[in-house]
Amino acid sequence: MPGDGIGPEIVAEALKVLERVAEIGGLELEIEQGLIGGAAHDAAGHPYPEATREQARRADAILLGAVGGPQYESLERDLRPERGLLGIRSDLELFANLRPAILYPQLASASTLKPEVVSGLDLLIVRELTGGIYFSQPRGIEQRDGQRYGYNTAGYTESEIERIARVGFEAAMKRNKRLCSVDKANVLEVSELWREVVERVGQEFPEVELSHMYVDNAAMQLVRDPKQFDVMVTSNMFGDILSDAAAMLTGSIGMLPSASLNSEGVGLYEPIHGSAPDIAGQGKANPMATVLSIAMMLRHSLNRNDLAERLEAAVGRVLDQGLRTPDIHGDGMQLVSTQGMGDALVAAL
Ligand code: ATP
Ligand code: MG
């Protein structure tokens, strides 16, 4: 589902790469194109049309480009492109959002932090995506004591906490066996429950070293010494904020993938960046974040870790060759277009 803005350009390159890696690995894929976001609104009158819903429901994995653009800002809320994204997330119950923040050594100078603080950075934020304050009832804007009052509710059920905690522990088991759960248990009852349930799930994973941190401290620690973290697990809103902060530590929004998974292993894979209308159609977009999202797809939905590693190695090789799209360009490097980067990745594979 290419979507809007630079979506179609980066997805086209990522699909070239996927087809090559599938060919190498003897992986048989049936690929369908789907409409989402503004593109779907233009063609079918809705950002998440029924036909797309049906495609999504029968897919093992979905690759999404990006949605949104200035031409859609005047649409009513329910027809905006972003609603397409919320629609597919809740429809498929994609409750676990995985956002790795990895600093490629070749791009160390792009970080906002000192090289010694970020070199070798490789952390994973596991964010709960379908519950918490963004979705809980009651919510609204109403009249109270003679003035307007806006409110939301930050609620989680035990089972919602349990399943996201399990994703966090399982991810930690596959990595360095350290999990930091982020909450605000000193102030919020919902966090008190969160902490209790995470502790309980932790008993199933005695090998994982579990720690807890208040979200304000976690924000500070992320920019002070991010390498102290391996896997972080947190609620929807805290994860939204912390993962954007973590992304900037790596300096390059064009390099960062994400996965959103449900309990059946079906996943939606997309770059963390948006539709970048300022550079759309100019061949300037970096397709790496989308390509790395495919690596996550191979790992989490298609059970081909071998091919995921191969793809990630190809990304490293192309960076070693000095090829750069404008967002990561620097002294002595060779500037390439979106398509040039896709071609180089295929060649590296
Ligand atoms: P959204 O609300 O959809 O997340 P946004 O307003 O946060 O969008 P982006 O679309 O992510 O913004 O773009 C932010 C900046 O990063 C823009 O200047 C854009 O050109 C740049 N950018 C985003 N993605 C890429 C990419 N893949 N390659 C190069 N530059 C990018
Ligand atoms: Mg954004």
From TrEMBL:
Matching SMART domains: Iso_dh (SM01329)
Catalytic activity: (2R,3S)-3-isopropylmalate + NAD(+) = 4-methyl-2-oxopentanoate + CO2 + NADH
Cofactor comment text: Binds 1 Mg(2+) or Mn(2+) ion per subunit.
Function in brief: Catalyzes the oxidation of 3-carboxy-2-hydroxy-4-methylpentanoate (3-isopropylmalate) to 3-carboxy-4-methyl-2-oxopentanoate. The product decarboxylates to 4-methyl-2 oxopentanoate.
Upper taxonomic lineage: Bacteria, Pseudomonadati, Pseudomonadota, Gammaproteobacteria, Chromatiales
Subunit structure: Homodimer.
Protein name (database record): 3-isopropylmalate dehydrogenase
Record-level GO BP terms: L-leucine biosynthetic process
An example Gene Ontology CC term for this record: cytosol
Cellular compartment(s): Cytoplasm
Residues noted as binding Mg(2+) in the record, renumbered to the chain: 216, 240, 244
InterPro entries in the cross-refs: IsoCit/isopropylmalate_DH_CS (IPR019818), IsoPropMal-DH-like_dom (IPR024084), Isopropylmalate_DH (IPR004429)
Cross-referenced Gene3D superfamilies: Isopropylmalate Dehydrogenase
Organism: Thioalkalivibrio halophilus
SUPFAM superfamilies: Isocitrate/Isopropylmalate dehydrogenase-like
Enzyme Commission number(s) of this protein: 1.1.1.85
Gene (UniProt): leuB
Keyword terms of this UniProt record: Amino-acid biosynthesis, Branched-chain amino acid biosynthesis, Cytoplasm, Leucine biosynthesis, Magnesium, Manganese, Metal-binding, NAD, Oxidoreductase
